[in-house]
Amino acid sequence: MYKEIYAKAKAYEAETVRFLMDMVRIPSFSTKEKDVVLAIKKEMEAAGFDAVEIDPLGNVIGRIGNGPKVIAFDAHVDTVYPGERSLWDFDPFDAHVKDGKVWGRGTVDQEGGMASMVTAGRIIKDLGLQEGFTLYFTGTVMEEDCDGLCWQYIIAEDKIKPEMVVITEPTNMNIYRGHRGRMEMQVHVKGLSCHGSAPERGDNAIYKISRIALEIEKLHTRLLEDDFLGKGSIAVTEVYFTGPSQCAVPDSARIHLDRRLTWGETEDSAVAEVAEACRLAGYPEAEIEVLTYAEEAYTGLVYPTKKYYPTWVTPADSPWIKAAEAAFAGALSRAPKVDKWTFSTNGVAIAGMHGIPCIGLGPGNEIYAHAPNEATPIQHLTEAAAFYAALIYELRP
User: Fold this and answer.
1) CA–CA distance from 337 to each of 88, 117, 135, 392 (Å)?
2) pLDDT at 397 over 90
3) Which letter does DSSP use for residue 323 in this model?
4) Which helix (H) or strand (E) holds 188?
5) What is the DSSP letter of 67?
6) For 111, how many CA atoms within 13 A lie in the half-sphere containing its CB?
7) Structural contact between residues 325 and 391, judged by C-beta atoms closer than 8 angstroms
């Protein structure tokens, strides 16, 4: 059966490539995914999915089968902007094939995963592998702006709670089983404005926030380290201030913090560490704010969430990982490497918040995510489609 699955994936290779290029040619930035979602819905319907719906947040959800074992495959369908166009050798949305790769914004992060997922759906239907399963294929929105928000909605509002989710973010065709969490914070301090010609009359908020920033730099060196996920991190990424004029001492200032959380670190522990840094800087009264995401989806819905995205790990000896390793070896005739992502994924909600096991495998190398001249190998697209179908064969009841 594994050979038959791979042969099907190879036979559909041209269709997989064509569909990926179709998506790349439709710009689909966070909160602006409507057109690509409609294109994906049309493709799923053409592929013979049993049902395809778009939920109120704008996620497109295809279903194959109606059995008791519920498994989901996820690809977010929003992309980041191209950035500085002079860094690209071509129009980022002029999808094309060259040197055995599909080129364009989103080919790696992560419409390539969606293209392979839909091909896997075709294979599963062709070979009747869906017996005993309900399989969901989710094209999720707003992940680049707020990872996991889409799956918070799917679980809480759509009432879909799979036994396991395959995240198709790029893994360079390795199996991934976790990544660090993250959170976004700001630290606020107040000052007292006065004329810049006599700064001693005021209380300079920039000096205060600068001293706190230097303590944050020291805090980074003291954070926990995990054998698998690596070290936690914290960085000051933005600085803001207010004041009456350029000739006045500023009356408030704040810094934005990017915090990456390794195993054992939590929202409470991270906030406590920043509070201690403020105290060491001499400003225990500084306000620490964990930010909230409340942007409007392309459907008009606002679904606010705190910008705390928990760490998650699927154990190496988990039956899901073992099944993934067997499916990989069976379909692709080689042993997989099991590793982790450097960046964050929808797993922060699926596994981190809701405890649903996740495994990851996707076409493309994550080092090309958000980079100019983005491209994913066609071989990866075909192998990923074969793996997804083979995993369902391996998990059959």
Assistant:
1) 31, 21, 26, 20
2) no
3) H
4) strand 181-190
5) -
6) 34
7) no
Q: What is the DSSP secondary structure assignment for residue 121, as one 8-state letter?
A: H
Contact of 280 with 294, CB cutoff 8 Å: no
Residues taking part in catalysis: 78, 143
Half-sphere exposure of 249 (CA within 13 A, CB side): 18
Buried b (16+ CB within 10 A) or exposed e, 236-258: beeeebebeeeeebbbbbbbbbe
> In sequence order, what are the beta bridge partners of 330?
none
H runs (alpha helix) in 196-262: 205-221
What would the pLDDT profile of 82-113 be if each residue is shown by its tens digit? 999 999 999 999 999 999 999 999 999 999 99
- pLDDT tens sequence across 6-30: 999 999 999 999 999 999 999 999 9
Residue whose pair of structure tokens reads 């094209």 in the numeric block:
139
pLDDT tens per residue across span 259-316: 999 999 999 999 999 999 999 999 999 999 999 999 999 999 999 999 999 999 999 9
In CATH, the number for domain 181-293 is 3.30.70.360
Are 58 and 81 in contact by the 8 Å Cβ rule? The answer is no
- What is the Cβ-side half-sphere exposure of residue 114, based on CA atoms within 13 angstroms? 33
The residues that bridge with 359 in the sheet, in sequence order, are 166
Q: Half-sphere exposure (CA, 13 Å, Cβ side) for 186?
A: 15
Q: Hey, what are 70's tokens?
A: 């519920």
Q: What are 244's two structure tokens?
A: 């009456």
* 2-179+311-394 maps to CATH 3.40.630.10: yes
Domain spans in the chain, listed from the N-terminal domain onward: 2-179+311-394, 181-293
